[in-house]
Amino acid sequence: MACRFSSDERSAGGVAPLRRRFRGSRILAWPAQLLVALALAGCAANALTDVSFFGGQPGAAPRQHLVFVVSTRKSDAGAGANQMRPDGADYSLQILSVPPHHQVGQIERPMFGAPHPGKDFVEVSRRDLDEQSFRNELATNISGRVGSNRDVLLYVHGFNTGYDDARFRLAQIVEDGRFGGIPVLFTWPSSDNLLDYEAARESATASRDALANLLKDLSEVPDVGKIHILAHSMGTWLSMEALRERAIAGSPDLNGKLGLVMLAAPDIDLSVFREQLRPLNPAHVSVLISASDKALSLSETLAGDRPRVGALDPRKPGDRAVLARLGVKVYDLSGESTGIIGHDTYADAPDVVRSIGAQIGQPRVQDEDVQAVLGQKPVSTDVTAEPLPQAATGPAQGAAPAPPPAAGVPALPGATTPASPMPVPAQ
Predict the structure, then answer these.
(1) What's the total number of domains in the chain?
(2) pLDDT-derived band of residue 394, with 50, 70 and 90 as boundaries?
């Protein structure tokens, strides 16, 4: 039987006090040819800092986030971090700490020496799990949560992203986006060599089954809310392939649990993306694109000038028509681009990362007062969580208007919705 609580009894997130940090500007003096070579390194941007000031509120403590991690890397560091595990995925439950004076959009890490929890992102604890205990821990941690706090945010990183880069990026997104559900990281051997782009894609290909299996496990957790996916760069290709696998297996919407699929700077060939979308409902999918993304421009060149989805420009009539035919929601982040490369805007730009959090964490009227009870299914079968939270400035065709963003959190800039989405294929 469903347990229901008032909205006042639901948990609320917060944002840690801000502190000022300084970032080096030596990159401005690098030769132009090195900047081009570094374009694809944007996936691993970390905002390294070596100057810290401990002003702000006295007695402020680091904020801790529980994160489930699934990895196909042979090891967390060294050469093994860029090699596939020979015996399936590795599972762990970690607590990651965000410094008390964290600045939105940054990942505070030491330039040298050991990290300090008072000024850096650090691992507080880690417990290794097998697949069954991973599922059990997920169910236990979801039990007792109310409304959208029963949701899962699955993060899949992109090319040239280290293990620490990936897990601390997720912690930063959870902190800055004020996500109140369960964060899950899927990390894969994405190479630490800019020249190993094709090798990284092979590792992504080899990781598809593990990610598809994780999606299946998440969809079967008792009382789970929605499963939202945030993927970046080459990780968007991997995520769409895993979703396609689940669709072929007969679960295109993850047993009705699929929420928002947000593809940031998708490094996907346009024709491939069309095929990946075919068995899915495109209403779930949003693409965050930027015509000023230099990493995707280089990727397009390496791919023989085949257009990448994330580099399409909705201000151009031809590109806009292509996007409209896909039937997905589109966010143009060209005006929000950060840094010289402009490949990590989804997480680096404060307004954008907060808006992503607002979209993912938007309350659903149908189950906002429903509590997860371990081993039960509290939401009745005649209740649906549709329509999805609207990412666009206006409602999609046939959908009810979405509630406004949370107070103080702006809507994503540059949102557009195709006027005539393609029909959804029969499932």
Answers:
(1) 1
(2) very low
Between helices 197-206 and 208-219, what is the axis angle to 10°?
A: 40
| Separation CA 191–CA 3 (nearest Å) | 46
Beta strands, E only, 290-399: 329-332, 370-371
Backbone angles phi, psi at 285, to 5 degrees: -100, 135
Report, as an integer, the average pLDDT of 235-240: 96
Minimal CA–CA distance to 288: which of 312, 324, 321?
312
Tokens of 399: 């959908």
Give which of 159, 169, 157, 163 is closest to 80, Cα–Cα: 163
> Read out DSSP for 277-298?
HTTS-GGGEEEEE-TT-HHHHH
Start-to-end CA span in the chain (Å): 31
Name the nearest CA neighbour of 56 among 17, 98, 102, 99. Answer: 17
User: What does the pLDDT read at residue 420?
Assistant: 34
Residue 375, CB-side half-sphere exposure with 13 Å CA sphere: 0
Is-contact 129 90, C-beta < 8 A?
no
The helix (H) or strand (E) run that includes residue 125 is strand 122-129
Does residue 425 fall inside a structural domain?
Answer: no
Name the residue range of residue 310's domain.
Answer: 27-377+386-416
Are 333 and 414 within 8 A, CB to CB?
yes
Report the pLDDT value the prediction gives residue 303, as an integer from 0 to 100. Answer: 54
Query: Mind listing the pLDDT tens digit for each residue in 49-59?
Result: 333 333 335 55
Helices H / strands E in the chain, number of each? 11, 12
Tokens representing 148 are 């959208």
Contact by Cβ (8 Å): 330, 417: yes
Residue 20: inside a domain: no
Q: What's residue 146's pLDDT? A: 87
pLDDT digits (tens, 9 = 90+) for 261-309: 999 889 899 999 999 999 999 999 999 887 666 566 556 555 545 678 8
Let me know if residue 264 belongs to a domain: yes
Stated pTM of the model: 0.74
Residue 423 in any domain: the answer is: no
